[in-house]
Amino acid sequence: MVMKQYDIPVSMLRQYCFCPRIVYFYLVRQLTPSEKLWMKQGVDEHNRQIMLNNRRNLSRYHICADNWKIRNNIELYSKNLSIHGICDCIIETSDEIIVVEFKSNEHLMCSAGVKIQLCAYVMCCEEKYNISINRGFILYGRKGQTYEICIDEKLRIKTIEVVGKIKKIIDTEILPDSTAEAKKCCQCEFFNFCADRY
């Protein structure tokens, strides 16, 4: 029996938490929606944060280290989880590696999807560097507010569960149910493809 190979972008884990149908439309139907204005704004803000991050010290992350390096847009993958993606930022000190994800939201809105995406990148880093990582950061909005996330066993299990659910969507090729409320549907790039929604 041949094992099926998966190649799941890490961003799909966050998308799955927003609505499982987004994963279906991207990975099964292979649809590419037109870019929304807010998507372009997010990319612009992301690029701005990279530029600013290169000028910053580690105080906003509450890290005290003499030797440190910030690396941006790091390609990562996990052979174990069959996921890949480009991590926004990795902070390397002599003691630890810390993953940082940038989000353009102005308020601290640390959803389950954002935490799972961060955890997935942490697990990719652990596999790549053969180390254990117990925390990461979300950097929010134009002011670059930071929010520390504990990468505990519960979050790791949830991340693995979401990967499994995405693999099931790919395998079955069946449109999953959506529990998204109207507020989410209105901002979804695939809104017109869901005939049973609002």
First-residue to last-residue Cα separation? 43 Å
Please, what is the average pLDDT? 85
User: What's the order of the H and E elements?
Assistant: EHHHEEEHEEHH
**What is the highest CATH level, the class?**
Alpha Beta
Main sheet record? 6 strands, mixed
Count of the separate structural domains: 1
Shape: globular
- Count the beta strands: 6
Beta-sheet strand percentage? 15-25%
Q: So, CATH architecture?
A: Alpha-Beta Complex
Uncertain segments are none
Q: Percent of residues in helical segments?
A: 25-40%
Rg, nearest Å:
17 Å
Helix segment tally:
6
Strand-pairing-aware structural class: alpha/beta
Describe this structure in words.
It is globular and about 55 Å long. The model has no long low-confidence stretch (mean pLDDT 85). Helix content is 39%, strand content 22%. It has helices at residues 11-18, 20-28, 37-53, 112-129, 153-172, 182-186, and strands at residues 8-9, 68-78, 83-93, 97-103, 135-140, 145-150. It is built from six helices and six strands, in the order βαααβββαββαα. Strands 1, 2, 3, 4, 5 and 6 form a six-stranded mixed beta sheet that branches. It is α/β, with parallel strands linked by helices and 198 residues long. The chain has one domain: Lambda Exonuclease, Chain A (Alpha-Beta Complex).
